[in-house]
Design a protein that fits this description.
Length: 423
């Protein structure tokens, strides 16, 4: 049974949550002088030294294992970075990530652009950090990173708060993820020894959790990092409403992901932790414990297809709790669409997505359009496929990434935004 679930998993999340192990490393960067005195790169200085968000704490050369001779092969220097950010609870945190600079010369006008990538769901265990998975060729975001590098863009991929580093990853937390993206852009500007220009223009990019992060960074930019020269943002299938996600994810193949969401809420809002945890029965508590150490690859061990009614003391599904406090306020804080970005946005969404409901994305885009944001919204009329398996979510990546890349090229070249808000 476990083998059958694993095989179904590889179909369901192709391009989103599973990639076959890959082999050959690309060239690694060797930046001078900022690292070497730490035995564990992911253990931040304690206490963190005084500084500003985006300040680089350390770097070290890394590698990205990849299959040579394929469209996913990359030729780039790869550097692991730790930088300061502001966490979900409002305090300073250290976040890690990876900066990849292609050896391919930049053929466009002006300095080489840098794309800040928010990865899709990785899980919650420290071993799930993208900067760790890249080394072993297990990071599925290569499917999006490789085409960006092939265009000549520098790419910086955040691990997010609490992945790889101490603390719990506040999964799908709008502020934490937006800050991690914006502060990685700040950090990248200072890494001129890696070949990133101080005046590099930026864009945000992501699908699924990464799409939420890209949209969140765009929404938070003006208030949190107004100095950054951000040109545009691509947000594919962004979970605009966690209330919708609770309904769609229940009894799905990723049903155990409720543990990531709840653990993230508890980490972000510790004053409400006791009340939130009180709704779970022993089986529910056990799922939360398992989720805390699991990667998305481990979901066959996290009760796939199980209803969340199994986990609550009164037998109600988790979705029914979200309209009451303290859940309602936590869910509302993660909602996208309430702060209009000042940069052009591309949004790609499969209308038959079985995890991120199109109704929530429609609502987000509608709010942005009403506020005057330039949005190129592409809604793909794909047929429903194997509902509750996340196949409908995965297949949306293909058109969203292809169109998003063409649109991003146009934005960096100063072309039209493709705004279709009035359509």
């Amino acid at each position: 049974m476990a083998r059958k679930l694993r095989n179904l998993a590889m179909i369901a999340v192709a391009g989103i949550t599973v990639a076959a192990p890959l082999a050959a490393p690309v060239a690694a960067a060797d930046p001078a002088g900022r690292s070497g005195e730490y035995t564990d790169f992911y253990l931040p200085p304690d206490p963190l030294p005084a500084g500003s968000p985006g300040e680089v704490l350390r770097v070290e050369p890394s590698v990205a294992a990849i299959v040579p001779g394929t469209p996913l092969a990359i030729d780039a220097t790869v550097t692991r970075v730790m930088y300061r950010s502001v966490g979900a609870a409002g305090g300073p945190v250290a976040v890690t990530g990876t900066v990849l600079v292609p050896t391919l010369p930049w053929a466009g006008t002006g300095p080489r652009p840098t794309v800040i990538v928010g990865p899709g769901t990785q899980g919650m265990g420290d071993q799930c950090a993208p900067s760790k998975l890249m080394v072993f060729g297990q990071e599925y975001e290569y499917l999006q990173i490789a085409p960006l590098l092939a265009r000549g863009y520098a790419v910086a991929v955040t691990d997010y708060e609490g992945l790889g580093t101490p603390g719990i990853h506040p999964y799908l937390n709008r502020e934490s993820q937006g800050h991690a993206m914006l502060d990685l852009a700040r950090a990248a500007r200072s890494l001129t020894e890696l070949g990133i220009a101080e005046d590099t223009p930026f864009a945000f990019w992501g699908y699924s959790q990464g799409g939420m992060s890209s949209a969140a960074a765009a929404e938070l930019k003006d208030s949190y990092a107004p100095e950054l020269p951000v040109v545009a943002a691509v947000a594919g299938s962004p979970p605009a409403s966690l209330a919708d996600l609770a309904v769609a994810g229940d009894s799905s193949i990723l049903s155990g992901g409720i543990g990531w969401v709840v653990n993230g809420f508890v980490a972000a809002y510790p004053d409400d932790a006791e009340e939130m945890l009180a709704v779970f029965n022993p089986e529910g508590r056990e799922v939360l414990d398992r989720a805390a150490d699991s990667c998305v690859y481990d979901f066959p061990l996290m009760n796939p297809l199980a209803p969340t009614t199994r986990y609550t003391l009164d037998g109600r599904p988790i979705a029914e709790y979200l309209s009451a406090e303290p859940w309602a306020s936590a869910v509302k804080r993660q909602e996208l669409g309430n702060t209009p970005p000042s940069i052009p946005m591309f949004v790609g969404q499969n209308a038959a997505d079985d995890l991120v409901l199109v109704t929530g994305v429609d609502k987000m885009v509608g709010k942005w359009c009403a506020a005057g944001v330039s949005v190129d919204y592409q809604r793909y009329p794909l047929p429903p496929v194997l509902e509750k398996t996340v196949v409908g979510h995965g297949v949306g990546l293909l058109p969203a990434a292809a169109q998003g890349l063409q649109w991003l090229d146009t934005q960096f070249a100063g072309g039209p935004t493709g705004n279709n808000c009035g359509a």
